[in-house]
Amino acid sequence: MDTQCTTMPSFSPRKRRWIEINVAVSVAALLAVVVMLNYLSARHYARWAATAQRAVRLSPQTLRVLSTVTNPVNVTVVFNTRDEETLHTLVVSLLKEYNYVNPRIRFRTVDPVRQPAEAELVLAAHRLGALKNKNFVVFECDGRTRVFYANELADVQFESEPGTDPPEFRKRYVAFRGEALFTSAIFNLANPRRVKIGFIQGHGEHDPEKFGHPHGYARFAQILAEKLDAQIEKVSLIGTNEIPTDCQLLIIAGPRMPYSDAELAKLENFLNQGGRMLVLLNNAVHAARSGLESLLLKWNVAVGDKAILDPKHSPTGNDLLAAPYTTEHPVTKALLADSPDMRVRLVLPRAVGQFRAGAAGPEAPRVEVLVATSESAIEVSQLRDGVPYPNPYWDRRGVFPLIVAVEQGSVKGLNPERGTTRIVVVGDSLCLDNELIESPPANHYFGVLAVSWLLDQPQVMLEGIVPEPLKEYRLIMTEQQLQQAQLTLLLGFPGAVLLLGLLVWWRRKH
Q1: Are residues 119 and 223 in the same domain?
Q2: pTM of the prediction?
């Protein structure tokens, strides 16, 4: 007898519909909860650093500054990421942290290789044509700007690659300076206090208003106004004229006539009160003594009267490409960060260095050589019609200092009003004129970096922000260890996954 087995449905159609409706409502409720959680988490969230390095973690000083910013600050990062991927990543990561803390700090990135048209617009908008094909970061707030070169943002070391002939150098970043520079820029842009720079006039100095003349200083003055938001004015010391009390930096560029004792006394008083001064002396062709030599001697700086030549590093015969002498000073650190062979071009410069008989002790001015010649340089005694005639028999040879930086905390018996006295002395003034300031590779950089160092007046609230050391980890393996690692990655891990899959299949089958 055949028995027919019938299967009854587990749920009635009505109950099935209720289950479907319940599932649909549950899914909708879950989606609604997810949306609400995302909405709330976007406004109320906690963040923590997953790394021991502080390169992208903000200091308390920076957080205080950002909390006071109420106006939009726009930041444009112009970087060729193929050349500077590491530094670009550090800059963008840091700016993201700024934006998280204060959304008014907005930034964008422009790659001049991938976005040439947009990069040209940035250069035109901020009048930064001299920085074409360079990496930089520009901050802008209410029409005021602050520009940082890529080589200002980090300390680097150049290491020679083993087994290369001629030697090839690899750039390695050892410290990132972004936070101190960016926080200072934001603070100064949000709380504008325009820098006032005075160019001494009246003794045949280069004119900061002359654009048409090759030896004018108008281009240098324009660069300082654009990059440092500086107010440029001419200053006369003749007669009863005094140095303006709000002048933060004096520039003396190539005087051809001597200063009077009264004028030198005004300059000395300015320095004794913590003044900042950039002194560019006439080269050996116009080496008549201006009186500044005796003033600089009081600050432990000696100035020579003869022309310095470096035949092995002279493009035209009368100039020379001087190499940085020290890697410890902020100015030369930034220069060398761009290239291990960054050179300043000078024309028949005079030697400028530390006075050998200078006073020693904690109160003495500290003199540091920034730029010097190579060992092949020669001090020329004879000049005829502006042309040097070296004599190998009595002209001295060797390394000659050409640019020095002077710093002193205070002068005994005086209370400096401006803080630390700083001076930069250059043995030639033509290096920053309209004709040579854009001379490759380093004149433009040097001029701005020197002035930036002279004007550096850290705010008390920013003290303690130090460059963040960057650690580099290298895995060194022998050829046998490398082969073992390749076998493990290419065969071991995939084989383990395959074996696990086979075990699961065998278990289910049996």
Answers
A1: no
A2: 0.66
